[in-house]
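Memo to structure team: turn this sequence into structure tokens by end of day. - J.P.
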Amino acid sequence: MTLEAQIRWYLVQFKPNSHKIAARNLQRQSFQTFLPMQDVTRRRAGKFHTAPQPLFPGYMFVSLDTIRGPWRQINATLGVSKLVSVAGRPQPVPDTLVNALLERCDDDGKLLPPETFSPGEQVTLRSGPFASFVATVEKMQPDRRVWVLLEFMGQATRIQVDADILSAEPSRVSRKA
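Reply from structure team:
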């Protein structure tokens, strides 16, 4: 009886704030890891700070062959809490989910914004308090939030909006406040 190698993606829970340690130690053991990251902006001491954070806090993906591979050593890896299992066997994550995430991330695992809008592009807000205003895209966040510059009261004002309310074709009438 021949067992074929079946490499799949599995879910690993890492210890609090140990994603870098867990990924490094798993890679040292020749496991391929995937930790999707996103930029998160938080307010501290009256200032906004943006830092990369795991997309799924506490979890990362690891690629392995449960038939031939030494998958049990993952639970003993520094920084890892456990390999997510059911009835003592690791359960694979659907390939479609991981492949879709891999397509949306750069080589470092950072989640890229949808390519709907690009910085400098003129857009029209379709709803909300600034409906039908024309704005300029400054940057996009992975969660489909878009920072736009809106001319408001004689100066450019930076606001964050959902990408779903933006239209790439500006209306003919541009209102200014």
